[in-house]
Specification:
single chain, about 400 residues, alpha/beta, Aldehyde Dehydrogenase, Chain A, domain 1, Aldehyde Dehydrogenase, Chain A, domain 2, 2 domains, 7-stranded mixed beta sheet, 5-stranded parallel beta sheet
Length: about 400
Amino acid sequence: MPELARLRTARAKLWEHPAAEARVIAALDRTLELWAAPDSEWRARLGEQQTLYSAAVLELGLVRAVEHWTAERMRELRARELPPDAHLPAVTALWLAGSIPPAMFQAMLLPLLAGSALLVKPPSSDPHSPELFAASIRAVDPGVADCIAITHEHEAFRNADALIAYGRDETLSALRGNFPDDRPFVGHGHKLSVAAVGRDAELEAAASAVALDAALWDGRGCLSPAWVWIEDRQRPRTERFCSALARALARLARELPRGTLSAAEQAWVRDSRARMAVRDGSRVWTSESGGRADTAWTIALEARTNFALPGMLRTLSVVPVPDAAGVLERCSALAPHLSCIGHCGWGTRTELLEEAVQKGMGSRLCPSGTMQLPSLDWKHDGHAALASLRLPTRSRQAELS
């Protein structure tokens, strides 16, 4: 197909030079600096083109996400995961889903860093982020940007040399079924994350950290806490935590206002509140504006753990658990859909949470307040950041590279 042929030619032209690795890393590093810069032109353009997130969320979320994706980290990652004789796909197809800009930037950056050209299908929920990221690379280095093509032509994906796909489990199954078995396929399906508050947590600090994890990207991503599990044998402590969490979310509603919700999302929040309010033993905290309830944030203290609703859109279910074994049990029940556990107040007992991540088939354990800030070398869903694209043998695709 013409687009694939163009990408193969552009990739071969770029990487025929010994300094190609340094050139690509420098271009990506400079591009990320542009996005993180004060008064960034690129953040402003993204804010103008999308309505999902407020300008404050875009600024804090993007700057904090990319500030540690440095040239040094990229060099270290390549050296660790890609030996000099590694065979890599000439063209990697990238099927994007969701609406978290830095997640899409990372998904695009890694194949380019590995040395592959990139065929990208943007998500319908946010086509602007991948398009602007590609444009920002072009502003820095047109030769590197020539190795990126954004398309809605799904047929071309079958002829790529590797495929990275994000989306619902059914979407991944369909894509996998139509992709050759002898080529790398990296799938990222339905996942969710949890916050675990230990018995040693200072409640105000813990609430502020959990609230930030929920507020960044408005609880839309797989790294947003769907539940908060608090280690507690006495409900009054959990109630104090919920009150502190309500104060923190109210503050963030001013500092990091939520973006626009669709009619369906507004209905989901209202329906969730109604369902939470009628549960036996539950207590609900909600946002108010001008003396009237709005949908900016919601907290439910749930008495019945097995029926606690997973949260999103700054709506959180808080569930007391008696001990770390309770966290382990609930994470095990989430397998294979657990992604991340954010934690605070566990002291030296984090090895118990590491076991919980493993039991839930998750891939990340991090302090609360940093759930939305994965490192470049994060083994997302267990897949190595770069090594997952390596071709097992020298294939025709590798020869084309």
